[in-house]
Amino acid sequence: MIYIVSDILYYFLYYVISYRKNVVRENLKLAYPNKSIRERREIERKNFRNLTDVFLETFKSTNIKEDELKKRFIFKNPELLERIYNNKQDVIVMCSHYCCWEWVFGVRNITNFKINAIYKQLSNKYFDKLTKSRRSQYGANMIKTKDTFKEISRQAELKELNWYGFASDQSPKKSKAVYWNNFLNNWVPIHIGAEIIAKKYNMAIVFMDVQKIKRGYYEASFSLITDKPKDFKDFQLTDKYIELVEKQVNSKPEYYTWTHRRFKHRKIAN
């Protein structure tokens, strides 16, 4: 039923009120300057269809049954996480705002790690409370971005092994940007917090690639970036993450979240 509602909502958002359509168009133009307008419009329409699906799936996540979630969001190779766990190592799992990221909290069913998720606090207190409550219902410990280093430092003193979820594909504040590189054909600031933490506490870093199989069904696969973070030079791990996100987005760009200003701090590379 929610996909019938999604079809109606798509028509309303895209054709009636043109919700952030100019933002999406600008992002696609900057990311894919070599594609024709017709090609970018096709991505745009598919992107809005996906947007309304994800919105309603997020709404549905407040009361979806666990058995239903297991069928609709499948983790393909949890043995990688088990290997890291058996190695007595905390893990940072990096993903992007691609496909459906709200259902990923079902991961608690396939791992013994304590689940923690880093999230950006919303300015609207009601929606922030709702978001935190929705994600916490799956047993995740929600950590505000401003508390990340303090909370991870505290938990590092405990015996429990931790999973830390990072979605690091959003732009950091320009005033706090310390590293810039190319991302989807634009020179932009990039978050490096996950790399810093991994090196400090010797955590493994894993990339989680989520793919949409069909409406309402997803598969997530894990790939190891490293379990020896201290062997890498500064920013090499961040670059590897960005490469994986680019590959993911370029495969099916309609599933990326283009409604945010992805390149608002972009500048010309030196």
What can you tell me about this protein's structure?
The protein is α/β, with parallel strands linked by helices and 270 residues long. The chain has a domain of 183 residues. The chain has 9 helices and 9 strands. The longest helix has 24 residues. The mean pLDDT is 91.
Write the layout of secondary structure elements.
Blueprint (H helix, E strand, L loop, with lengths): L1 H15 L4 H11 L5 H24 L5 H7 E3 L3 H8 L4 E5 L18 E6 L5 H12 L4 E4 L3 H9 L5 E6 L12 E4 L2 E4 L3 H9 L2 E11 L2 E10 L9 H16 L19
Helix pairs in contact: 1-3, 2-3
Can you tag this structure with a few keywords?
9 helices; single chain; 270 residues; alpha/beta; two-stranded antiparallel ribbon; 7-stranded mixed beta sheet
Overview in brief:
With 270 residues, the chain is α/β, with parallel strands linked by helices. The protein is built from nine helices and nine strands.
Low-confidence stretches: none
Shape: globular
Tally of strands: 9
Average pLDDT metric: 91
Span between N and C termini?
51 Å
**What is the gyration radius calculated from CA atoms?**
19 Å
Helical amount: 40-55%
Pattern of helices and strands = HHHHEHEEHEHEEEHEEH
